[in-house]
Amino acid sequence: MKPGLGIGELAEATATPISTIRFYERRGLVPPPPRESGKRRYPPGAGDRVRLVRMWQNAGFSLDEIAELLADRERIEVWKELVRAKITELEVLQAEVERSRQQLEHALLCRAPDWTACPTMQATARGEPKP
Question: pLDDT tens across 65-118, in order?
């Protein structure tokens, strides 16, 4: 049996398309694996790395930010500052999503003949408390 995982096995184990793994490799997010007979053979920890990159993407980090996180992992303060900034971005996004949810819920219940002119909808759109 060959040591390590082939790219198809890694893709299956991480639920990540093969093309995405190759792209991560080209971007330096996943170290290039050794090859055996011309085929990639990923070490056991490669799956964790792919899942970590995907987790960070799902948290809203760009690939450039992820590359910076990986490059600066020894410099904990740089890494923490990147994470703090992302948390702040997510908090702003979360507030925007909540305001949008409130608008949509009100739109379903609004009795105004033209809900786009509804005072409650207008106040919510401006980020003000409901009248």
Answer: 999 888 876 788 888 888 999 999 999 999 989 988 888 888 888 888 887 788
Domain ranges of the chain: 1-61, 72-131
| Structure tokens, 92 | 């702003």
What DSSP line would sit under 94-113, residue for residue? HHHHHHHHHHHHHHHH--SS
Both tokens of 35, joined, read 């090859």
Cβ neighbours, 10 Å, residue 101: 10
Q: What is the CATH number of domain 1-61?
A: 1.10.1660.10
CA gap 103, 108 in Å, rounded: 9
Burial 61-94 (b: 16+ CB within 10 A, else e): beeebbeebbeeeeeeeebeebeeebeeeeeeee
